[in-house]
Amino acid sequence: MARAPKKKGKTGEAASYVTRNQAIKKLQVTLGDFRRLCILKGVYPRDPKKKAKGKDKTYYATKDILFLLHEPVLSKLRDIRAHKRKIIKAKSKKDFVLVEYLDKRKPFYLLDRLVKERFPTFTDAVRDMDDALSMATLFSNLPSTNLIQSKRTLNCRRLCLEFFNYVALSHSLRKVFLSIKGCYFQAEVQGQSVTWLVPYNFVQEVPPDIDYRVMMTFLEFYETQLHFINFRLYNTLGLKYPPQVDLQKSDANLGINAFLLEQISSEDPEATPAAPDAAKTVTAQKKASNGEKKQQQAKIKSLQEKMQDILENENESKSQEDVGEDINADLEDEEAEEEEQEQGTETLLFKKLKFFLSREVPRALLELMIKSFGGAVGWEGPGSPFPESDESITHQVVDRDTQRHMFLSREYVQPQWVADSCNAGLLLPVEEYGPGVCPPPHLSPFVDDEEEGYLPERRRFILSLQEKSKNHAGAFDDMPQDPAEGDEADAKMKDEDEEEEDEEEDEEVDAAEAQYQSELAKESGKEEAISAPKSTKTKKTKAEIEEERARMMMSKKDRRLYDKIMFAKERKRQRVQRLENKK
Amino acid sequence: MESDSDEDGPVMKNPVGNIPMEWYKDEKHIGYDLSGKKILRKTKKDALQRHLDRADDPEPWRLVYDEVNDEELRLTDAEVKLLRRLRNGKYEPGIDPYEDYPVPEDDPELKIFGPSGPEPKSRFVPSKHEAKKIVRYVRMIRAGKLKRDPDPQDPDKLYNFDVWEREDDVVHRGAVPIPAPKMKLPGHAESYNPSKEYLLSPEEQEEMLKQDPSDRPLNFIPQAYTSLKKVPLYPSLVQERFERCLDLYLCPRTVKKRMNVDPQSLLPKLPKPADLRPYPSVLTVVYEGHKDKINSLSHHPDGQYFASASNDGFVMVWEVSTGRCWKKWNLKQPVSYISWNPNVDFPIIAVAVGSEVILIDPRFGPQDNLQSAAIQELLLKGREFAASKGSKEKNELVKFEDVASAEKEQGLLLRVKHAKPVTQVTWHHKGDYFVTLSPQANTKAVLIHQLSKMQSQNPFTKSKSDTQKVLFHPSKPFLFLATKKHVKVYNLQKQMLSKNLLGGFKWLSSFDIHPGGDNVVCSAFDRKISWFDMDLSAKPYKTMRYNNTGLRTVAFHKRLPLFAAGGEDGVAYVFHGMVYNDLMDNPLIVPLKRLHAHKNDGMDGILDILFHPTQPWLFTCGIDHTIRLFTDK
């Protein structure tokens, strides 16, 4: 039997991609709902090689659209639309009883499934956490408008603080960068580096020409994602989630200090949903985390005993919050010790230091830095664990030119010292960061020096300090470096030598030629005729001539690629040159 | 019963009753008395009188005008008090408005005023209306339409579990997800206190602001602050985050492989020029003598001499080794092309001058008399043959004319007169035939002439007006013809097109055939040289590009694996072009050297190049009136 002829647009690229309008028709939703759905489900346009419907269209993968078609959120969105219409109708009929009835029954959707769908493993979720965190930190600083509800803002603030608290507790902060946009933090969570930006403590401007519906939809998903990530992170520390908040401290804007951490009690099976089930996803990391968990549980037990001791010994009148704080401190101490054992002192740079923050420095940011590097923090204002007059304070962070009373027992530093020390992994000399002094340049810790191609003066200085401290730490470690490297260098040298020889030879020949030509020219009395071609012949090195020859023989494709690479190199070189010149 | 009666009150002087007094407005009277007589209105006081009265009166506010009786009354103290009390809404003193109402107990008379009759039945029977409502609600509840008010939803409580520990079959069934690229991490320039070199100078800043925001390398202007507390609000943070959101859901995503190629690996490995010696590289001799630009060069078959043709009307023969002009002929017109017969027995020079081709016998001294004799014999043979045939055709293609005797002394042999200017003349390798090109002559553009018969033939019937160059195959009966875009190969025996070489040229300038006959190299004004291996394909085996200028001419060496091209910038490019005898190996082409030979005037530099037949020497001629010889080192 003859096969039916293939129909156009049924196979291949044409069938595997659809335009946005086709997708909307297929899903029978409005553009707004489609956008919402795409944002929540993480569906984005694709770039097919063959654009069947023209280049000006946006294409989605057909598979994605079919996947959306069966999405429960889609039907919920339809329900919400229908429900809105019902309310409008009831209002217009002045049936306020019905309006009230309907108001209480607004359809809603849950996003937990979508989180699981988009991030099948916890690591995936952490890897994609950057945007979520930056968005949440931004929104926690936004004023509430009719589009940005204060409820959401508060929730964002809570989620951020919870995460920061985790970072501080687990000492996972790695890099800090004070930029003009805000403060960048980079932490290592679950083996993934998570980077986020915390704006400085201003009320942000809310530009009017932004579609906040889009941002709110993103935020909706991000909030859920952060919630689940925090849940899991707290569980790995053996803590209950969500942590209780001390309202009094929260009102005093004490940030991460307001959390009352509570351990998961072993009798309550429901509170430990993260039961170890390593057989399912057997990865080394997981096993490690399981091991951690056991340790944590042991720790928790000891903590519980302690807690009971406290409860027994202390009067009943002692408030709950104090206990929480004690636990907090205990946890930190133990964590710190453990970390120290595991990773050496490097990550706990501020281990034995005690900081006091003046009121003009951004407290929340510095607190996060200091706590996650193991230091103790006090501040000017309510809720500080120790007053300014405490003699054991080693550093006072100030951002004022003059001080009322200077304690001789402590160092006075600017906030940049804390950030620079965190990045350098060592305590930098404090003289350059004193009050009223313009501190040395603050460099981004995220720059790959090799890729940048330019080493600022300050970076060189810090590298030398690091080298010194390393040498100091292990005097026997400075063996001759990689022997292969040496060989390579030797080989290079040899090559260069050869080339030089060649060049010399060539130069000799060229010189001879030039001389001959000039002589000829003299003979003929026509200097001009010779000098003209000579002037066009710019002094080219042997390598350049060689390259020109080879370039001539390249295929078009190769040549274009080569030119592109060389162009990029040249641009980078120029950039570096410009920086060098400005120094 | 007491209030309605007027009779009990003060006696009415004007008993008109309770009527609007405006009815009497226009009358002189105001009513009638009891006897029926008109009561006349009192004469009205004028305003002055009224004012005087009021001024005289100690208490004028007590006066009230009674409209009905048409008289003025004076309020007494008691009346004033009463009025004041009324105005303040007070009771008469002594009256308690809130006095308890004394409820009389079991007063049978009072029962009269209570509800009369027995209670209606409806008060004791359940309401039908309500019963209906209840039934409706029950039905709605049963149908699930009516539900209890739900608890307010708190996502924290709903989400109180670890989503990654849950066992549910949530699977991503969409297309393979492409993770979004992370945002670029900030560089040194974004620091609140960057090092000085990262700050922009005012010019750089201006330049950056001129660019479109999407083209700028940074989306902010680097700033330096002396301390952290001086850092102000960054205004476009929300905007940037919004743009990131848009990127995440609006940007098409594809996986792009980042090529991490070492650029050196892309460069082809070429043999060193030193290994491919000999090749011309050094300027050795400059031949001077022409007064105008030199159009063409050609060498004697044994390579001892070469000839040049110039716009000044001279044809000169030079001795290669000494640079001496050995002989010259003044033809008085610009000479466009010159070609030396490759047959050693008949060393005739053919030159194209205007619309003529002139054949010249160079006569190399007494020892060459033999050759001159041979040439004369050949011509005689041709004349005889032509005479025997007679001039049958009236419209001959060309005219073979004898030269004047004075010219004969100089060595000129014959003029071949064409209808239109001749641009090129070239010999067959056996030396009997030569072909001329005069593009303006349309269908007669390409003509083949035979010396031994003094005869011409036109191989083409169609117009060949865009022909650039024409050459004989070095050994076979083929004619190569270059148009602006192609090189066409005609089989002269079969009289048909045998090959069409396509190089994608816009304007082909020149070509040459490898002495082996299977390879052709073409130069084009569109800055490229193409090597065709006719055994492989009709398309170029290799194309070499120049970024500088167009190329005017190209030539192969007769013996050595060399070829060269001359550019409009006065630079000659020398290549190694090795053709292997076995068919397995493709030709090896290596660029060797750039020779800066001649000046250029922006339009032209080198006009012709020529290889020495045996030595690795290259002659170039150009617009600067000189010929240069480049030799091996």
From TrEMBL, chain A:
The keyword rRNA processing applies. Residues 286-348 form a coiled coil. It comes from Guillardia theta (strain CCMP2712). Residues 496-511 have a biased composition (Acidic residues). SMART domains: BRCT (SM00292). Residues 345-435 form the BRCT domain. GO terms for cellular component: nucleoplasm; PeBoW complex; preribosome, large subunit precursor. Signal peptide: none annotated. One of its GO terms (biological process) is maturation of 5.8S rRNA from tricistronic rRNA transcript (SSU-rRNA, 5.8S rRNA, LSU-rRNA). Its main location: nucleus. It is found in: Nucleus, Nucleolus; Nucleus, Nucleoplasm. Residues 471-545 are annotated as: Disordered. Residues 520-529 have a biased composition (Basic and acidic residues). This is Pescadillo homolog.
TrEMBL record, chain B:
Its main location: nucleus. GO terms for biological process: maturation of 5.8S rRNA from tricistronic rRNA transcript (SSU-rRNA, 5.8S rRNA, LSU-rRNA); maturation of LSU-rRNA from tricistronic rRNA transcript (SSU-rRNA, 5.8S rRNA, LSU-rRNA). GO terms for cellular component: nucleoplasm; PeBoW complex; preribosome, large subunit precursor. WD repeats lie at residues 287-328. PROSITE patterns: WD_REPEATS_2, WD_REPEATS_REGION. Keywords: Nucleus, Repeat, Ribosome biogenesis, rRNA processing, WD repeat. Residues 97-108 have a biased composition (Acidic residues). This is Ribosome biogenesis protein BOP1 homolog.
